[in-house]
Amino acid sequence: MDEQMLDRLRRGPWNSPDLNDVFAQADGIATIPAGVATDLGFTPSQAREILSHVPNGDFAETPPDTSSDISDVTNKLPDWSFVTVAGSSITARVVADSSAGSGYVVRFSGASGSTNDEAYIEAIVPIASSRARRIGHLVRAHFLAASTATSTFQVKVQFDYLESDASTTTGTGVTDSNNFVTSALTTFTGPNGNLPAPSDAAFIRCRLGVKRTATNSTTATVDLTDVYTVVALDALLLADRGDPTKEMAQVYKSGGALRVSAGVAGSDAQLVIEQTARTFYHQNSTPYGARAVKTTNQSITDATATSINFNTEADSWDVNGLHDTSSDWEKIVLDAGGYYMVVANVTFASNATGNRRLYVELNGIDGSGTSLGQVNARADTGGAHGLSTTVMRYFSADDTLACTVYQNSGGALDVASASLAVWLVSAA
What we know:
Blueprint: H1 3-10, H2 19-27, H3 44-52, E1 81-86, E2 90-96, E3 104-110, E4 118-126, E5 136-145, E6 153-162, E7 169-179, E8 186-190, E9 203-212, E10 220-232, E11 236-238, E12 249-254, E13 257-261, E14 270-274, E15 279-283, E16 289-294, E17 298-300, E18 306-307, E19 312-313, E20 332-333, E21 338-348, E22 355-362, E23 370-378, E24 385-395, E25 400-407, E26 413-427
Antiparallel strand pairs: 1-4, 2-3, 3-10, 4-9, 5-8, 5-10, 6-7, 6-9, 11-12, 12-13, 14-15, 16-19, 16-26, 17-26, 18-25, 20-25, 21-24, 21-26, 22-23, 22-25
């Protein structure tokens, strides 16, 4: 057992029957800043390993000599192996970097060398496995050109799922490369694309290094800044912070569709998406929208397009204040783009003369806007005359909708009742 392994054991939580000794050992580790919690002996690097799912993925645990190149024999990087594929021009060492959270990065250096000279560091990372393939993993590795960069100095990465023997590959691996000619931070991701892990996967093998693409004397340096794993589960569960008696909500993907379930089949299940200035709201018994209603007679001037002044609302739809009953009574103002269903209804008082017209008016009132869903009828009886129209189309945020009527009975004619209902069918 090498010294690095012994050192990791020394940092472990229960290497002494006396807890005072455990805490004394943790306090004695020089790399731990004063004031950082060390309960149970976990060092900051070990705590970050739990969060990142990659042992020493930020290289906080350095080789014994950071002034020398990494070597598995004489200067090992904890939890990683250094592998030379071809040639000897590619080396790596851990260097201090104040911009890194751990304080260190792995710097690959390429001296004068030949085509296909290559070296990398490798880690075999244990993963949570699922026979049902309900877990996915995205390993992300970040490289940054250091002081110099060249197109002949190629970053090369390889990610593979391994079976329980930590050797046999399974699923589809990822091999990627990038010729570094800029200092931009570049992210490499794998394995298996965006698919869940294979059912027999137990590890991910990460190989991160550089390769010469041409023989020349050009030198270059590239930093590997950090490696971590994003773990995907089959559902995100959310407790109700306001009412612990409610079922947990779920966010999940099924049948190729992203689904959000409030977790309750009853009428109180709801989805609210809050934005800076607007709120999208949906409740399974209440559409997102508004239903404005006219409950009193409104006189319509002869041969004049006139919008209905709605004096109230119905059905408690208007949770976002799309209709204002104190001003601009005629309008419903949309606050989010999307496909909407619009239904307008009016009933004219009894009169057998002339024609009657109803339409939904977009971005205007009293005939100044655009006519949608126009319906016309001849008043050929003396009874009350009802008209209805339905419009379904895309509307933009801040569009206004009105219910506009027209009659030419030869004099003023009352509209005895009217309503304008608007609800969102599909968000933009």
